[in-house]
Specification:
With 442 residues, the protein is an alpha+beta fold. Helix content is 32%, strand content 20%. Bound molecules: 2-oxoglutaric acid and fe (ii) ion.
């Protein structure tokens, strides 16, 4: 679909009589324009953005100051990585067990590497629309997706952001993938801060499943109505993030939303849900969000999520952190179960147009009241497979019906056989004594 044939409702007071949100979300997604394309095609004006991006009035951010950061009672700790080890362990442990976020400086990653990475993400998002649309899809099984909001069909309102997501482990496509060194060291400190062996988290494959999300937050004409990224916690072990010079990331500390201050060259680290569980609640996975960008300059960030790569092993609070005074707060779970619960259930489609193609969707997808989350896991099927597979399935179905009919017939004949045999036996039982009597009476 081209931008000229895309019409999206904008006015919240006069929505089109038959405004169908899911239909408009799908039209927008099928257009493959992304938020940046929407903006460039003039489908969002200085005073309005499409209704699919409007968050419910009670959760809208309201007026946003162009001169943030705002002053709050709290701030996100900045840890100087060149400090002596005991100080580092203390600072990182303290941050991880309170606000769940910290920034590190003097980590040894050259500033130009960070800047180059962010510049590459910006350039990709600013490529001509026809080149970018070729990359736009949300099939997670391919390892790379580019789309507006990974949870576009799951959330109640879309957010003003396009994301390129990549699985970067076990094979790292780019050897200069920045945050690795830091990530390894930081995990070492976090293990030590927990009082467990330095390599403990690494041993549990906590570092090995890595996904990178490169976010692009273009200028939003109505940042008071929508978000760049809604409030969430990260599901994994830790997230390592670099951001450009446009603010927007906020962390919830108590009842306050605290801006993550811009520190040139710093790397932001936050604790994810799995580390909170493994640490038996010593470390905190804290809610954070990104405000829609009110500035002409786009906000760019690159996050690397570290997850255990062993999806079928059991995870839970480390035994050395469980005691009578501090019993286990969580039971053991496998990562597959955990992710399915978080993301939705993997199901295989058997429709004629997508026979055998797997998708991830919320339970009861398509039924009234269900969440509407749907994501193909497998790539699209070729036309020949769409003809051949349903044909084979129909033929299999026919054979199964015939087999069921044959089985029923065999059963009927067996029963009849049994009846006849019983009749034969009965006849013989009557005939033999009769014949014997006749013979004896002779
Ligand atoms: O863009 C950002 O600064 C935050 C990204 C984030 O929180 C995420 O991808 O989970
Ligand atoms: Fe996050």
């Amino acid at each position: 679909m081209s931008s000229s044939s895309l019409t999206l409702t904008s006015d919240p007071h006069h929505p089109h009589q038959d405004y169908d949100r899911l239909k408009e979300v799908k039209q927008f997604d099928d257009s493959k324009l992304g938020v940046k394309g929407l903006l460039d095609s003039g489908l969002a004006s200085s005073s309005s953005i499409p209704l699919i991006f409007h968050h419910p009035p009670d959760s809208q951010p309201g007026p946003i100051s162009h001169t943030r950061p705002t002053h709050t009672h709290h701030s996100i700790p900045i840890v100087d990585f060149s400090a002596p080890k005991p100080i580092l362990t203390d600072q990182i442990t303290r941050a991880a067990s309170t606000v769940g976020f910290f920034q590190i400086t003097n980590h040894g990653i050259p500033l130009h590497v960070i800047q180059r990475t962010l510049a590459a993400v910006k350039s990709f998002n600013e490529l001509p629309a026809d080149i970018k649309t070729a990359h736009y899809h949300r099939e997670m099984g391919r390892g790379v997706t580019f789309s507006t909001n990974v949870d576009l069909y799951q959330s109640k309102a879309a957010s003003w952001r396009d994301t390129l997501q990549m699985r970067v482990s076990p094979v790292l496509p780019n050897p200069s993938d920045i945050p690795e060194v830091v990530r390894e060291e930081v995990l070492g400190f976090l293990s030590e801060g927990l009082g467990v062996e330095e390599g403990r988290l690494k041993e549990m494959t906590c570092l090995e499943g890595r996904t990178m999300a490169a976010h692009y937050y273009p200028y939003c004409p109505r940042p008071d109505l929508t978000y760049g990224l809604t409030s969430h916690t990260d599901p994994g072990v830790v997230t390592v993030l670099v951001q450009n010079e446009v603010v927007g990331l906020q962390v919830k500390v108590g009842e306050e939303w605290v801006d993550v201050e811009l520190v040139e060259g710093a790397v932001v680290i936050n604790i994810g849900d799995i580390l909170q569980i493994i640490s038996n609640d010593e470390y905190k996975s804290v809610e954070h969000r990104v405000l829609a960008n009110p500035l002409q300059e786009p906000r760019v960030s690159v996050a690397v999520f570290c997850n255990p790569s062993n999806r079928d092993g059991l995870f839970g609070p480390l035994p050395e952190l469980v005691s009578q005074e501090k019993p286990a707060r969580y039971r053991q779970f496998t990562l597959s179960d955990y992710m399915q619960r978080k993301e939705g259930k993997m199901t295989t489609s058997w429709t004629d147009s997508n026979p055998g193609r797997r998708f991830i969707g919320c339970e009861r997808y398509g039924q009234p009241g269900a969440c509407g989350y749907f994501n193909w896991f497998d790539p699209p099927m070729c036309d020949r497979a769409k003809v051949v597979i349903p044909g084979l399935l129909r033929s299999l179905g026919r054979h199964e019906t015939e087999k069921t009919r044959d089985d029923a017939e065999i059963k009927r004949l067996r029963n009849m056989n049994n009846v006849l045999f019983a009749a034969l036996v009965a006849t013989w039982c009557l005939f033999v004594p009769c014949a014997l009597m006749v013979w004896l009476n002779k």
